[in-house]
Description:
By secondary structure, the chain is of the alpha+beta class. The protein has 3 domains: 13-67, RNA-binding S4 domain (Structural Genomics Hypothetical 15.5 Kd Protein In mrcA-pckA Intergenic Region, Chain A, Roll); 75-137 and 223-243, Alpha-Beta Plaits (2-Layer Sandwich), CATH 3.30.70.580; 143-220, 2-Layer Sandwich (Alpha-Beta Plaits), CATH 3.30.70. Helices cover 21% and strands 28% of the residues. It has helices at 16-22, 28-36, 97-101, 128-135, 155-163, 200-207, 238-243; strands at 13-15, 40-42, 45-46, 53-55, 61-63, 66-67, 75-80, 109-110, 118-125, 143-149, 166-167, 170-171, 176-182, 187-193, 212-220, 223-224, 233-235. Strands 7, 8, 9, 10, 13, 14, 15, 16 and 17 form a 9-stranded mixed sheet that branches. Helix 1 (16-22) crosses helix 2 (28-36). The chain is elongated. Uracil (URA) binds next to helix 6.
Amino acid sequence: MPKPPNPIGKRRLKTLERVLSKAGLGSRTDARSWIGSGRVRVNGKVIRNPDHWVDMDRDRVTFDGRPLRPVARIYVLLYKPTGYLTTWSDPEGRPTVYDLTAGVGTWLSPVGRLDLDTSGLLVMTNDTDFAERLTNPDHQVPKTYQLKASTLLSDQQIEQLRRGVELSDGATRPALVKRLRESARYTHLELTLREGRNRQVRRMIEAVGSKVLKLVRTAIGPIRIGDLPIGQWRILTAKEVKSLGGPRNV
Ligand code: URA
């Protein structure tokens, strides 16, 4: 969504919705709903308009009567197992990545998604600006996947994946593709993409006439799984956050 214009020059103005989501209490959707239900006051007055401008240096915002406190930004790397959804809650009660990161102790938003049947690296953060930037399709942080295809793949099929294949939402950008190993019936590949569309790897492999049997995200930019055990998380270092285009002063 384009940023609303800052109407009054140099003053530090943010929309009320932004102020709440930046305070690390929840997503922007949560913030809109809390504002709409009258739980948020600016200078003592209930404001129900999420686009209300707040002067960060003068206005006092409270949520359920308590002043907002700035929270420390936090960046977590989770090694997601298969069988966990990348959503906050599931009507069918299946496990989610939040079951694995409850120990972090603060609200987090996943940066992009991994399918239920994909394992591997997932970044989660309460820094909504960072999350938005990293999930923007124009942002080109490379993501690396290892996969097992349901068939043997020829050099020609692999070349097609490298050059780009036609998907229902357009052609894919050139990708790095490495043949890792071959068994009697299956090819194992490593794919590095600079875009992140829905089920992209699975759809690319289907576009060349095969299927993905197993998919693991092994790297995001320079960050690799290393010795992080599956199902566990760790805090990203300031250097790692910076390498993904995040702020320097974490
Ligand atoms: N591509 C996919 O097909 N699935 C994922 O989970 C991630 C990338």
